[in-house]
Design goal:
Layout: E1 25-26, E2 31-32, H1 34-39, H2 46-58, H3 63-70, H4 74-82, H5 89-99
Antiparallel strand pairs: 1-2
Helix pairs in contact: 3-4
């Protein structure tokens, strides 16, 4: 014996999707406002990138080994060497300590 069930009708309100006026960039840590994004555009300079790479290759380390020895992620090491990373003094100091060299700054 099956019972006929009557389901109530749901009424839905209209939804409008809009883009935000200001672009927002997110990182794994927090949301960056457009103003902060402009402020943080200190991309790793070419001589610093080459210093890291030369020091790493001089020790015959792979990027994976450098990441492990410096306790930085492989992504960070790759981004520093390819120049797409925003310059971070703490990361540079960490690499200097791991590699045993002093890096050139801007």
């Amino acid at each position: 014996m099956s019972k006929n069930r009557i389901h109530p009708i749901q009424e839905w309100d209209a939804v409008t999707l809009t883009k935000s006026k200001q672009p927002v960039v997110t990182t794994s840590q927090h949301i960056i406002s457009p103003e902060e994004q402009i402020e943080r555009q200190k991309i790793i300079c070419s001589h610093l990138r080459s210093d890291v790479q030369k020091a790493r290759l001089g020790k015959k380390w792979t990027q994976i080994e450098l990441a492990a020895k410096s306790n930085l992620s492989l992504v960070i090491v790759k981004e520093i060497e390819n120049g797409s990373r925003i310059q971070n003094e703490r990361e540079i100091l960490t690499l200097e300590k791991a590699l045993g060299v002093k890096m050139r700054r801007r």
